[in-house]
């Protein structure tokens, strides 16, 4: 009676401690979750206001540029990019790790068969089998499984983030090809005109109508343009190699790309949902908080008593059949154990686990702040680039009109050739600047889509 009563008291005391500990852990958990969700809602409200769209349907990042050739390259990149494939293999390994964690909650069984023989005696067969099971009285194993599940879900979200980042990189590299090609076209037009002007200056110089300084200036401008053109062509080749690297290809399959900028659709009011919670990196950070909380609970329950059941079956005989099937000896054991002294190791592990919860929360805050910064920067860039394009377009219109006037005056002998060349150069400079601004705006729209959480449906 006395041992049974002592055992009951011990179990009840442990249960009371467990309830108090679980309550404390749950309070901390709810506090961090609530704080994280409140911070997210506040940032959504601050950025998007009350006009958050709630339309049905999903939009992929690739849908921003409706080009079939580009979508083919994106699919090739998702299937062949080595870095993404490494992440996928790590994710599959993490998924298999869930099987091991789940198995800890189930009974384990083992069996062995051995033979022995000594001089003057028959061979003896010995059979033993055992089944053991740790009763999850404190839900410690369940918490460990939940922690592993949350960690795996976080890995899944990070993989989706890697997919979205790769898609954005392919799209921006695609736009860079167009930008490089257009830079070549503009420079070729400039060079053709400079060569024409140089030939005219040489002819005038031979006729005694020009100066050596004008000839030197013309040759300098022509040589500079040839140098720039060579650089632009190498930039185009380099961009092709960079895109090839993203695709994970040894030989380039890039054959067709547009020579004009495609439309990059982006209408915030038409997006299915404006919510930073769509970002997979934020989802991963939130799941990491959950995983850390479960791990802290596991670390606390390591200090509580554990109950194990084990059953064994054994026999030995000179006959293998008798050893297997005739009158085996069985035993059943229930064992209650509790840690008494481990020099503060378990308590320290629990404190470390609680610090990791706080660390996960701070990591979530950092991810949220970065997300807000990326969205605000992209929105700000969209506005300023649009304004810059309007001003440069007006300047280009004026420069073209000015060039026409200088051409007419030069034919009438009212201005020098150098003045006409300066007017022509101004047009080419503004065309190149406007083209660069257009590329920057389209590339920024891809960044904005990525910052808003648009991803890839190819999972």
Automatic annotation (TrEMBL):
Stored Pfam families: OEP (PF02321)
Q: Where is the secretion signal located?
A: 1-26
Q: Which Gene3D superfamilies match?
A: Outer membrane efflux proteins (OEP)
Q: Which domain of life is it from?
A: Bacteria
Return the InterPro entries for the record. MdtP/NodT-like, OMP_efflux
Instruction: Write out the entry's keywords from A to Z.
Output: Lipoprotein, Signal
Q: Would the keyword Signal turn up in this protein's UniProt record?
A: yes
Gene Ontology MF terms in the entry: efflux transmembrane transporter activity
State whether keyword Lipoprotein applies. Answer: yes
> Family, per the entry?
Belongs to the outer membrane factor (OMF) (TC 1.B.17) family.
Which named protein is this? NodT family efflux transporter outer membrane factor (OMF) lipoprotein
Provenance organism: Marinomonas communis
């Amino acid at each position: 009676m006395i041992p049974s009563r002592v055992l009951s008291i011990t179990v009840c005391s442990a249960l009371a401690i467990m309830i108090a500990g679980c309550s404390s852990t749950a309070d901390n958990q709810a506090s961090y979750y609530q704080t994280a969700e409140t911070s997210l809602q506040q940032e959504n409200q601050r950025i998007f206001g009350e006009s958050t769209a709630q339309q049905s349907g999903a939009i992929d990042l690739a849908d921003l540029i409706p080009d079939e050739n580009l979508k083919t390259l994106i699919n090739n990149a998702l299937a062949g990019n080595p870095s993404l494939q490494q992440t996928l293999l790590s994710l599959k390994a993490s998924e298999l790790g869930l099987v091991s964690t789940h198995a800890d909650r189930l009974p384990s069984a083992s069996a062995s068969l051995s033979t022995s023989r000594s001089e003057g005696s028959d061979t003896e067969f010995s059979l033993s089998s055992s089944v053991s099971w740790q009763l999850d009285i404190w839900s410690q194993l369940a918490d460990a499984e939940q922690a592993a599940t949350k960690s795996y879900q976080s890995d899944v979200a990070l993989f989706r983030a890697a997919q979205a980042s790769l898609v954005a990189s392919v799209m921006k590299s695609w736009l860079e090809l167009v930008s490089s090609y257009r830079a070549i076209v503009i420079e070729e037009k400039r060079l053709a005109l400079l060569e024409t002007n140089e030939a005219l200056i040489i002819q005038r110089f031979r006729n005694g109508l020009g100066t050596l300084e004008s000839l030197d200036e013309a040759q300098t401008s022509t040589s500079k343009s040839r140098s720039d053109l060579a650089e632009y062509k190498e930039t185009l080749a380099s961009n092709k190699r960079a895109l090839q690297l993203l695709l994970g290809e040894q030989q380039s399959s890039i054959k067709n790309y547009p020579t004009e900028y495609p439309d990059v659709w982006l209408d915030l009011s038409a997006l299915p949902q404006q919510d930073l919670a769509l970002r997979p990196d934020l989802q991963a950070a939130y799941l990491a908080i959950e995983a850390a909380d479960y791990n802290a609970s596991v670390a606390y329950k390591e200090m509580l008593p554990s109950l194990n059941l084990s059953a064994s079956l054994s026999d030995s005989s000179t006959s293998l059949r008798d050893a297997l099937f005739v009158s085996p000896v069985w035993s059943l054991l229930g064992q209650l154990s509790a840690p008494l002294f481990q020099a503060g190791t378990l308590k320290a592990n629990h404190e470390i686990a609680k610090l990791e919860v706080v660390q996960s929360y701070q990591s979530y805050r950092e991810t949220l702040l970065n997300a807000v910064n990326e969205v605000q920067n992209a929105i700000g860039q969209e506005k300023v680039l649009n304004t810059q394009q309007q001003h440069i377009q007006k300047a280009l219109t004026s420069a073209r009109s000015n060039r026409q006037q200088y051409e007419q005056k030069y034919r009438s002998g009212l201005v020098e050739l150098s003045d006409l060349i300066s007017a022509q150069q101004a047009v080419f400079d503004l065309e190149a600047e406007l083209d660069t601004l257009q590329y920057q705006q389209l590339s920024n729209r891809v960044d904005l889509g990525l910052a808003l959480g648009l991803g890839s449906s190819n999972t």
